[in-house]
Amino acid sequence: MMAEPPMSCDCFVSLPPGSRDDHVIFGKNSDRPRDEVQEVVHYPAASHPPGSMLEVKQRRKSRRYETWHTHNLAWVLIIRLGLERGDSARAALTVITSLLEQHGQGGQCREAPEPFSYHNTFLLVDRSEAWVLETAGRLWVAQKVSEGVKNISNQLTIGSEISTEHPDLRSVAKAQGWWDGEGEFNFSHVFSPENPPARMELAKQRYRGGTELLQQHDGSVTAEVMMSILRDKPSGICMNSGGFCTTGSMVSILPRDTALPCIHFFTATPDPSRSVFKPFIFSDCPTPVPRVVSPQFGPDDPARKQPRFQSQVDRRHDLYKAHQVALNTMETNPVAVYNILRDLESQCLSEIAAMLSGEIPGEELGDLFFDCVDTEIKFYQ
Predict the structure, then answer these.
(1) Which of 89, 91, 95, 217 has minimal CB crowding within 10 Å?
(2) CA distances from 2 to 7, 137, 213, 237, 241 (A)
(3) Is residue 336 very low, low, confident or very high in pLDDT (cuts 50, 70, 90)?
(4) What pLDDT was estimated at residue 61?
């Protein structure tokens, strides 16, 4: 166990033959402020009048999607628009890079008055391929991943294996004196600071730990394996230290067979090692799950007032509250609690496996997320 766990975010993907089955497996963790609440919200597809505006000009039609929420973060808006407008990983890459080139990136990255922002890396995944996108201001570089396993963390990882890039990337690097224009162009070397802060050095350990875990399971990655990686404490991928903890955990199964639905597992509670992954399947009429949605505060929301985040509101949803109370029980009798929760998760995974193998019709599992949230809350009570 490392003495000072790095604060970071981690994304993982396994594409056949890295996966045991003919599925693409995606996993994601975030390290966020301890008291920040994560929601799971379903946004249906929508049509928009020409010229209508969000924070940027809205397209006439957007795609439905399911996502975790942290409130009012610029990178969340970028992800949201990529999900709404892109029907593939490559299309989402085009959406996001176009937005970066036009609007840049930044903004407050947590719900607090103290300024805190950073630039971002993304892992975009669909049924057939993945793209790693790394950014520096409006500049960007991307790498296509067609097979095997890959992970990203809070650092630049793309070297010379570049699939596509901002048209001015190399000329800017040369003009700034970061690259002499001779020899191989290595993005991570050129754009990484000469004296990186300590937290970035610590994140390198976490990135290497994630890479090692993926490589250990290369050829046999499943949703269960991905969940175990997201729960790994020794690597720091799952951490709980100081004012931060790991949260926003998610695992997706994307079958290569387009006749099969994709399944997305969310915890909606902090610390995946003490949470249950619950499956969501898109359907024409998904059952609303208000117990994982935060209350609304309208114009009184401190995120909507200027200056922003000068006060705080209670954004805890029902599951979050119940989970917080249950954590105290876990401290006194953790084994019994973990066993029961893992049984619930294992049952869901078994039903999903049966559906993917054709034993259970997919329509019968459309309300599984609602049922799992309801069962988990009842258990905590």
Answers:
(1) 91
(2) 12, 32, 16, 11, 11
(3) confident
(4) 52
C-alpha 211/C-alpha 189 separation (Å) is 19
Reply yes or no on whether the pLDDT at 57 is more than 80. Answer: no
**Catalytic residue (one of 9, 11, 238, 245):** 9
User: H helices of 45-197, where?
Assistant: 74-85, 89-103, 169-175, 187-191
CATH architecture entry for 10-43+69-380: 4-Layer Sandwich (3.60)
Q: Is 245 a catalytic residue?
A: no
H-only helix segments in the chain: 74-85, 89-103, 169-175, 187-191, 198-216, 223-230, 318-332, 334-356, 368-380
Residue 17: is the preceding peptide bond cis (ω within 30°)? yes
- The pTM of this model reads 0.90
Burial of 114 (0-12, 13-18, 19+ CB in 10 A): exposed
pLDDT at 339 over 80: yes
pLDDT 10s digits, 149-171: 999 998 899 999 999 999 999 99
Q: Where are the domains of the chain?
A: 10-43+69-380
And the tokens for 152?
Answer: 């990203």
Model confidence over 276-308: pLDDT tens digits?
999 999 888 888 999 999 999 999 998 888 888
Q: What whole-number distance in Å separates Cα of residue 151 and Cα of residue 105?
A: 23
Q: Rounded to a whole number, what is the distance in angstroms from the first to the last CA of the chain?
A: 33
